[in-house]
UniProtKB/TrEMBL annotation:
Residues 235-316 form the Cytochrome-c3 hydrogenase C-terminal domain. It holds the Pfam family NiFe_hyd_SSU_C. Its EC number is 1.12.99.6. [3Fe-4S] cluster binds at residues 283, 302, 305. Gene3D superfamilies: Cytochrome-c3 hydrogenase, C-terminal domain, NADH:ubiquinone oxidoreductase-like, 20kDa subunit. [4Fe-4S] cluster 1 binds at residues 70, 73, 168, 202. GO terms for molecular function: 3 iron, 4 sulfur cluster binding; 4 iron, 4 sulfur cluster binding; electron transfer activity; ferredoxin hydrogenase activity; hydrogenase (acceptor) activity; metal ion binding. Heterodimer of a large and a small subunit. This is hydrogenase (acceptor). It is an enzyme of class 1 (oxidoreductase). [4Fe-4S] cluster 2 binds at residues 240, 243, 268, 274. Its cofactor is [3Fe-4S] cluster; [4Fe-4S] cluster. Belongs to the [NiFe]/[NiFeSe] hydrogenase small subunit family.
Amino acid sequence: MSQKRRSSSEISETFADHLEQHGVSRRGFLKFCSSMAAALALPAGSADVMAKALSAAKRPTVIWLSFQECTGCTESITRSHTPTIENLIFDFISLDYHHTLQVAAGHQAEEARDVAMKNAYGKYLLIVDGSIPTKDGGVYSTIAGRTNLNMLEEVAAGAAALISVGTCAAYGGLPMANPNPTGAVAVTDIVKDKPVMNIPGCPPIGLVMTSAIAHFLTFGRLPAMDDLGRPKAFYGDSIHDRCYRRTFYDQGLFAKAFDDEGARKGWCLYELGCKGPTTHNACATMKWNEGTSFPIESGHPCLGCSEPNFWDAGSFYEALSVPQGRVGETVLKAAAVGVGVGVAAAALNRSKKSAAVEGRETMTVEDLKKES
């Protein structure tokens, strides 16, 4: 990580130059682009276009501000495997300020941030981790004698875009939960004049964070987002829609306790409080620890951590109100119809996707920008 003022040649260095200097093979780079294109649900042929765009791009400055948080989001991103945090820091971005990962401390750390802001003013990507206290002028969390609120306002002013990682930055999270003693708020409650993307989760999946950054590197802007500011590629479906236990839900087979026969057979955890039907995230498809597992696969219901106010909503082990189409004793026929509709919708979506990529063997960055 850079702690000193970079020379003009370093600032103008492209990815291709940097990769060549550090012995990164073309094959490894294309593998990275392929995984990113797949994660971002870009059409066929996107990997080559992404590779061309990234090769010619300059390494952007990234500043990471940590406020009221637990460092869980940093722990998560350091476990992203495609790319790894080492790739991200040393090959694809210039992470010039991060409290936990940087070597410098004290005055040197703050100087590194000031220099990074000056050299890349108006172009750098700002990542914010944690909520911002506003009560009593924000005195409940400070860095180098400055409140989080003051630092966010200063750094956000020179940013091209912001990414709020974790539920605390995206929605206020645990610090904002009742009674909210510090007056904690989300990033979007403070920053109103810059594009902001939310990547909620407690913590978010590391690969989701790095994929979103890769999109910004490729296109120079944030990806398509839903009405809560989340990237659609990762938060477009509910966990329930993609959960491997969904077939048991459709059959009306539910675990009644964590150690009963149903739990041992891997039945649906809905009646144990699973919030998968109301939670949008990629946990069921991307999973954690290099795709090893996710809470439901480990036998624990989803808590809904990527949705607003999940702490105050509580009822972690209480079932949601009975959903329409609930299978089991009462509406098996309705459920069967629902399953049929779901299958038909999936087939229609596949057909639409197939039509969308037909004839797209030759693509440009502009084509990809429209798709993304």
